[in-house]
Amino acid sequence: MITQRTVLVADDNQATNMRMSILLKRLDYFVFTALNCSDVMKKMTNFNPDVVLMSLRLPEMGSGTCLGYIKKDAKIKAMPVVIMGEKTDTKVMEEQLLKGASAYIFKPVTPTVLYQVVQKLTEKKPRANVRARIIFKTILTYQNTKRVSFASTLSEKGVFIRTVNPIPIGTKVSISMDLPSEKPIELEGIVIYTVEFNRDEFVEPGMCIQFSNIDKDMQIGLRRFVEEQLTYDLDPNLEL
Hints:
The chain is of the alpha/beta class. The protein folds into 2 domains: 6-122, Response regulator (Rossmann fold, 3-Layer(aba) Sandwich); 131-231, Thrombin, subunit H (Beta Barrel). The protein has 6 helices and 11 strands. The protein has helices spanning 14-26, 37-47, 66-72, 90-98, 111-122, 216-231, and strands at 6-10, 30-34, 51-55, 81-85, 103-106, 131-142, 145-155, 158-162, 172-177, 185-195, 206-211. The protein has a 6-stranded antiparallel β-barrel. A hairpin with a 2-residue loop joins strand 7 (145-155) and strand 8. The longest helix has 16 residues, at 216-231.
């Protein structure tokens, strides 16, 4: 069974909370938000999030910092906390690591950095490459066979093809992807895993193809495209 991780986002700016929440949901996380330290403490206790993303400038509670209160509470002190701040706050955020924070990230936060940090703190085998759910046409060529399929997820390193008849693991394929570009993107790849149809627990059936001949420029271009798909309709004036 696939476990959907829970993230608590804490910033005193409601617009920032909203934008961050939308992005995290598109990355397949369940999200709660908080506007102040008291709310953070309450939601950490009630909902037991897998990770907390907290603004360095979150309003304090009483005479101490929010991180300080979290680390004094036996029920929640083990939960990983990531501090978010500006590059000019680097020294202060490094001090937060000494006080118990698990990591810190700079604003504005890119989808790739956000995904990598949350993955590292929540998964035994963290994924490094951010991915977007996007439906597009592909043409697969393998063993003298040509097959039209549709992809449902894309990253800079590979693509997930939805199908109830996956190609065997280890099969080398040529893949042509119909993405917004002057011409279809053509790459070589290999099937690294398949997902069979399960009547008892629905998980999208299909196969993952890992790109095997992708150059650096193409990889950067795909990463940029994926990040655009995740953020294209989010107001760029809202700070992440």
